[in-house]
Each structure stands twice: as C-alpha cells, then as structure tokens.
Amino acid sequence: MDSLKQSGINVRKDASFSDWYIQVVLKTELADYAPVKGLIVLRPYGYSIWETIRSILDKRFKETDHQNGFMPVLIPESLLSREEEHFEGFTPEVFWVTKTGNNELSEKLALRPTSETLAYPIFSRWISSYRDLPMKINFWNSALRAEIKSTKPFVRTSEFLWQEGHTVHATEKEAEQEVMLILEIYRELIEDHLSIPLLRGFKSDKEKFVGAKYTMTLEGLMADGKALQMGTSHHLGQNFSKPFEIRYLGRDNQQHFAWQTSWGVSWRLIGALIMVHGDDKGLVLPPRIAPIQVVVVPIFRDKDAKWIISKANEIAYDLKKSDIRVYVDHREEYTAGWKFNEWETKGIPLRINVGMRDIENDQAELVRRDTSEKSFVKRAILTESAISILEQIQNNLFLRAKRQLEDNISEASNYDTLKSILDKKGGFVSAGWCGDQRCEGIIKQETGADIRLIPFEGQDASASKVCIYCSKPSKKTAIFARAY
Amino acid sequence: MDSLKQSGINVRKDASFSDWYIQVVLKTELADYAPVKGLIVLRPYGYSIWETIRSILDKRFKETDHQNGFMPVLIPESLLSREEEHFEGFTPEVFWVTKTGNNELSEKLALRPTSETLAYPIFSRWISSYRDLPMKINFWNSALRAEIKSTKPFVRTSEFLWQEGHTVHATEKEAEQEVMLILEIYRELIEDHLSIPLLRGFKSDKEKFVGAKYTMTLEGLMADGKALQMGTSHHLGQNFSKPFEIRYLGRDNQQHFAWQTSWGVSWRLIGALIMVHGDDKGLVLPPRIAPIQVVVVPIFRDKDAKWIISKANEIAYDLKKSDIRVYVDHREEYTAGWKFNEWETKGIPLRINVGMRDIENDQAELVRRDTSEKSFVKRAILTESAISILEQIQNNLFLRAKRQLEDNISEASNYDTLKSILDKKGGFVSAGWCGDQRCEGIIKQETGADIRLIPFEGQDASASKVCIYCSKPSKKTAIFARAY
Predict the structure, then answer these.
(1) What is the extent of the structural domain holding B257?
(2) Residue B403 domain-assigned?
(3) ipTM of the assembly?
(4) What is the pLDDT of residues A119-177, one digit of tens each?
(5) Chain A residues with beta carbon closer than 8 angstroms to that of B2
(6) Contact B54, B163 (CB under 8 A)
(7) Nearest CB neighbour to A109, from listed B36, B46, B76
(8) What pTM value is reported for the model?
(9) Are residues A336 and A214 in the same domain?
C-alpha cells in the first residue's frame, strides 16, 4: 500500500492553495511525477477522468461530422518554420530530436508543440476540389512544450494530453461558424458536465494563437482568484492556407485558398476540476464526469460479510440498470472508516452505506460528497433517490462555482482601482481599453494581470469608457486577471 | 477530390504484391506518407479501423481488471540503460532529444521505444504491499523506433500506434496466467474479429523480447507467403523487478521481488488485414472490424431522388436498430457506378442498392464484397438477410484464410528441403531443432528465414526428429519462415 495513501490531505485549501493542490493530485492517485522535470504520469484514476472527458467530446465531434486521424509526433524544422510568426512563438519551447541511435540527423526534428505545420502540407495533398470540403479532422494525442517556468501537474507540464481539431472550409463564413460551434461544444462540456461556469470572448491580438486571425476563449476562475484558460478555438483565416498551399477548385472553376480553423482542450480541465470543486478533504467530482458516481460500502463483520455484501451487490445492480457508474467496495483488508476516507478523498459524488441494521430496516444510508449531508432512504426508492441526489450535486456544484465567479468579477474605472482589486481580491476585473498593445503590455508588466478575454457580452457599453491605463477613449471592454 | 481517388487499384495482387499493397493503403485513404521518411499519417478511414480494434481490446482489458494510464514519451538515458540487455536491444533505433529551444540538455532523452524502463521505477513507488497487487495497467500510445531498413506503412514505421500492457504480480504463477490470458484476448481479436487464423507458440531466446524470460507470440501468414508477427505477450520474470526494485511486503511480512509481464499489439494488424483479405479491387474488411458494415446506395435520377433516398434511409434505419454500422451514400455529385467502385475499393462488406425498380418490386439488391455475389431480397426480410450475410462473410473470410494458412505449412526433414520449400513456396516450415542459437543463426543467414515460433502443439513428436541443420537430436519442433 502506497504510503501516501495512508494519510489524507493535511493542508487546508485556503491556507496554502498550491500545497493543497499538489497533495490532492498525489494522494487521490490522479497523477504522479515522471523522472524528467515538468513531466507527469497519469495514474488509472486520473486517466479514467480523462477518458470520460474524451468520450463526451468525441461523441459530440462525431455528431457534428468531425473524424479522427493520427499524425506523427515528429515535425521537420523546415515545416515548423514555414509560417514565421507561428515558428517564433513556439521555438523557445521545442524539444529537438537531433540523433537516432548514434547518427546525427541532417535536419533536426521538433516534437509536436501543435500539429498545424505538419498537417497542413498533407491536407494540401488531400484537397483539390470543393467536393473535398469541408474537411474536419481531430487528433487525440499529446503536445510537447518544454516548460522552463514553474510547472504544475495538469496545468503546466512539458507534455500534455489534449485534442487538436483542424478544419478546412471553402468560405470564411463556414470557418467562422465552425469556430463558434466548437466553442459551444467546449462550453457544454465544461459548464454542463464539469460544472465549471465560464466567461466567453475573444483573446486580444497579443494573447491569441500565434498565426491565427482571431482566437475565441473560455476562461474559468480558480478558487484562489486566478484565471485559467479552459479551451480555445482559433479562426486561422488564410494565414496558413497560403504558405502551405491549401487550395481548391471551386464550382466557379477557379482556384481558391481555403479557410481554416484549429482548436483544442487539454487535461488542464482536470486541474480546473480540482481547483474549483475540491475541498479540505480532497477531490469533489461532479457526477457527470465522475468515473465512479456511486460507491456502495457494505459494513460487515466476518460472520455477516457474505449476506451484507450480497445486499450491496443488489443495490449496485439496480443502479447499473439505470446507467449509473457504481462500484461496490467489498475489500476485506480495509475497515469501513478507512474506505469512507478513501472515497471522500477521491471525490466520489455519492456514497451508500449498507450495514446489518440498514438491512433490517429495509434502508440504506446515503452520504453526499459535496455537502456531507446524510440521509436514510428506503430500499424501494433507493435508485430514484440516488439519481435525484446526483442531479442535485451536479447543479449544486455549478451554482456554488457560479456564485464564486460572479462574486469575483469586479469593475474598475481607473488604474489604481484595478491594481488594488488585483492585489486584495483577485478574480476578473472588467475595464475599458484603448486597444493598444502598449497599454496591455505595461499593465501586464506592472500588475501581472493580462487581458484574459474581450467578452462577447457588454461591448456596447465600452464606448462610454476610457482606457484603464492611458485614459484615451475605450475601444473595447477587456477583462483582466492574473492567471495560470 | 483527391486525384488518387479517381483511379482504382491498377496492380494485380499476385503480380506485384508490394506495389499492390501500397496502392491499397493510399487509394483507399487508410494512410499517407508523412514528411519524415519512415513515418505515416493515419487518415480518418484508417483511424476508424484502429478505433474499432481499440474498442474491442479496451473492453476485454477492462473486463479482465486492467486499467488505462498515461506515461510521457521521454525517457532519460540513465533509466533506459538500467536493464542492460534491454538497452542494447533498443539503442540503435532510439530517437534522441538533445535540445530544448536553444539549450543543450545535460542528459539526453529517448523517445519511448517501449515504456518498461520509464514505468517500472514509478511502479516501484506505487507498490509496497501485497495489497497493491496485482497491478495491471495498459497504455494506448505510440512507440518510436527509427527504422533504417526498408519501411512499409503499418508493418514497419518509425512511429506506430499500439497498446502496451504492464502488469505486476505477487507470484510467478499469476504472471504466467496473465501472459496466457492476454495471448487469448489477442487471439480472439485477430481470429474472431479480424478473421485471420494464427499459429501460437513461444519465441526462441534469440527472438524473444529483450529482457524477457520468455515471449509468447501469435503468427499470421500473409498472401505472399511471408509471416507476420501479430501480437506478443512477455513473461518478464524478475528480470526488471530486480534492477528497478519493484518489491512488496508479503503476507509473510517479508520483502519479495515482484513478477511482471508486458504485452502489445500495434496498427500492424491493419497491415495484416490488407495483406490477408485484400484482392485486386482493394480492401476487403471482415464485418466485425469494418467501421461501415453496410453501405446503402440509392440509385436515382433528379426527379425521383427524394423518394428513393427516403427509402434508402428507411432501410438504414432498420439496420441501425439491429446494431449494424450502416452508411447511406446519397451524395449527388457522384454517379452510382462511381460509388460502387469507391465502396468496393474500401472493402465495405455488404452493399445494398436501391433503385426505382427495386422499390416497385418491394426489394433491394445485396452485393457481397468477398464473393461479388448478388441477390435480390424482399424488403420484409432485408434486415435479417443482411445480418445473416454479414455472418457468412465473416466466416468465409476466416475459412478462406485458414485454408491458405494450412496449405502453406510444410514439414522439412532435412536442410535442402527446408531451403527449397522456402524458395519455391514460402510459408511456414516445421522442422526439428537442437535448441542451439548457432544453428538458428546460420539458418537465418543462409535462408533469410528465422524461427517464427516454437508451437504449443506437437512438441511431443520432436523427440523423434533431428535438428534440421546440425542433425543432432532435436529438442524442439520449430516453425521457420521468412517474415516482415
């Protein structure tokens, strides 16, 4: 038995957020450190959460006519450098393969930081006519970006699991619709399944994907008041189709450059789950994303073990019939109390305890992870009660996080207020912005906060504001925050 | 529209097997070449076959208490070299990362050729007591081995998709059972789903996995008479648990080194599907592995298009209710003849044509891909007929391949016969072997054939034989073949 497992989380979330975070990651057996600095391994419990995220997204991608494919991890330097801005953005953090066996390579190979530059020359071979469009391909893989700054499991690691979608369209309008469709699919996943409320908007030109025409983003708020970018969807315009020569013959019998998008979410979402919902006892998982939604713990002594375990199995069987992911913990080498602790630490939404007295009373005890609330429920209505409580947990987690988000969106009308809010309270701060990258840069340098997004909503009001830094007329309402 | 798509396969399978193979790979849009030599990309059609293989295996792994995890692709040289034999086996083909950005790394990092040396020091941290065992973890990832010899899509590429399972057990017996269980799961997948008959046995010490105690293998026969290793399952003994210090506290309160296994299959299985079942028209997919099992082609002119397409949709709807994977090809920009060709090339097991005359006669036309047989079937019994024909196709492909395999297993009682069979006919040749690696090595050097396996069956008879090379008493019956 892992020695870490023997002790629960022993740092309070509000006492030392980052120590608490690391303890949750390690002690709930989500992940562990790999031997190379900045890299982590995903343990089965962590991977099963990723599998759930993956299956939700994969289904939606397929329903909206996307297909999966595979591209190798190695990209020749000459391709990576073909789109200049893109190359400059990524090269500082590229892992370079320079040898195979004992042989020096004539051209060094990058480990994929993202696949645009590898995929697009290949797409250009596959596309020749309007009949081949739209082409919508997704890759479930990992990306590699050497992190020199501080690393953090799930949030900032030198290799991370993600999906990257790449689409090619005949018209700009279709590409714009695609970017929006994907943003909505991500929002559904994050708000409706992960119970994490979001702000939606555009990235500023400074913060957008290098090489994109524009980037749309979903931003979440972590419990320590820092923002986390949860998913991005990029309209690439023709910025890549031109250097990579993705052209098609139109119905008009003319050659046209195609319009493109790319988009991705990563296992960073698991980090967000921890930071948003976790508490002093450990992880708290929203039911829709939990690999195990209900754990049934039979409470027995040696002589009645068989009987009580069989009752627990019956309860589990009924729940399974209603498509609930359930696990019966009938291990004999651990005490019931030890099991309660373990499942609480791991964030299982609902626990059902079944002891001899419960069986005699034709009931079971239900314990909610989110509120610690306990209730005794009659066996006859156990399944429907469990279903209803799981829904309540799902909603409660979302509403709790939404209150937290709303309480932490402030408005600032002058630079001093902005700085003071960031220092005292953190969270998101909405303010007017002239649109100049110089102001944006100075604010970031002086306060550590950057423009997280230019929100879709509320831009009408920005005309009446002034830039928070230079006081010139405001062009946009921007939302600033310190971020991971 | 891809120019390759416009023309069908134009090389006969028996005329130039390897040109035919490449044409099938490219023209059916399974895969394409990546810019780095030896690497391929998987197009959506190829990836969907891999997804089907993956989902079959993943279900079986989970049913047998395996869990998935993730390990990074980068392995420090010092770890890779900790098991000496293993290291020597893999280093010639390792891709080495020596830089990130512009910085030289102090220790070079290998791209995973396989994950034993990365995973096992981590497993050693996770395991401390018998309660933590067995630990059975699988990784769905890719492995990288620089191929300097000739490469071939799916069969020999420098990066390949695969799964690698790694298990740790308290006793040698459990490890032996695990190796056998996995071999059986692989056999089920390959024989029952891919319709490819197999030989089962042990690898010789020369050919086993470097570092393993022994390797069990499944070997298939390709249509050109060459063998292909389809899946391997390794009993690692304590060869890795000792250098990597995987120890557990037993019920006896003593420390013990654990027993381990590792095992894998790769996308090579897609190569085998092509080589075993394909024909002059292209791919032929067994129904259980086909991403699309039935394609419904409505045959229409402009004026009746709507009506006929709606009838085709109804047929598809009924098939879907019976869990058949079906696709209605109602594209208007292609002729029916063009569609027939495309789906035949892609190997869809069953095609259903629906034209106006068929609707008038309350029937549809069914066309089998494996035999080209056509039949008209009444609408009322269409679904059950389709199900029954799909089963027939599945069986027919297996039986056809099994005859092919059986016709190409020969016996040789002396070295000249062995050489002559290998030159004239190819296939598998069974012969006595003294067990000496010297004989094995000379045979390989002189004939190009190695010991593919020491079959489970028929070893009783080997005592009465002599070694095919040195004529000393035979210790084993070995099966030789030239192989991919």
Answers:
(1) 3-277
(2) no
(3) 0.95
(4) 999 999 999 999 999 999 999 999 999 987 789 999 999 999 999 999 999 999 999 99
(5) 125-128, 132
(6) yes
(7) B36
(8) 0.96
(9) no
